[in-house]
Amino acid sequence: MTKVYPVIFTELEDACLVEVPDMEILTEGKNLEEAFAMARDAIGIKGISMEDDGEPIPEATRLAEVKPEEGTFAEEGKGMVSLVDVDFTAYRKKLDQKMVRRNVTLPNWLNQEAEAAGVNVSKILQEALMQNLGVQR
């Protein structure tokens, strides 16, 4: 699920301040490029945290309705509004690399063959599940 949010960027000499009003996020970067990455990262983390807590992810405000002169950092300098997109499904896959233990039942003869061949059963199971589900890492 991809969403696009308006974000207010306020460039200073040594930093770029970031506000995502719809998500109540404040962050910053060393420059505009890093600020965009920080905005996307913060939106992704907050969005999947909200999903995990059973909260709905907020809808985005229309771009024309965002007023940088009323933003949190308005006194720091002139802000500009840009859109930042986040694919929450891809972001979750990127962050959730925790391994879980599952018990798998195999016929003894197949387990012995796998051990004799030095086959990594967990790796093969992961690959087979990803292929069967049509997903990638």
Describe what this molecule looks like in 3D.
The protein is α+β, with helices and mostly antiparallel strands and 137 residues long. The protein contains four helices and four strands, in the order βββαβααα. It has helices at residues 32-52, 88-95, 108-117, 121-133, and strands at 2-11, 16-20, 25-29, 79-87. A four-stranded antiparallel sheet has the order 3-2-1-4. A hairpin with a 4-residue loop joins β2 (16-20) and β3 (25-29). It is elongated. The protein starts with a strand and ends with a helix. The model has no long low-confidence stretch (mean pLDDT 92).
Q: Any guess at the CATH architecture of the largest domain? A: 2-Layer Sandwich
From the N-terminal CA to the C-terminal CA, the straight-line distance is 16 Å
- Largest sheet at a glance? 4 strands, antiparallel
Q: pLDDT under 50 segments (min length 5)?
A: none
Count the E strands.
Answer: 4
Strand content: 15-25%
In DSSP terms (H or I, runs of 4 or more residues), the helix count works out at: 4
When the domains are counted, the total is: 2
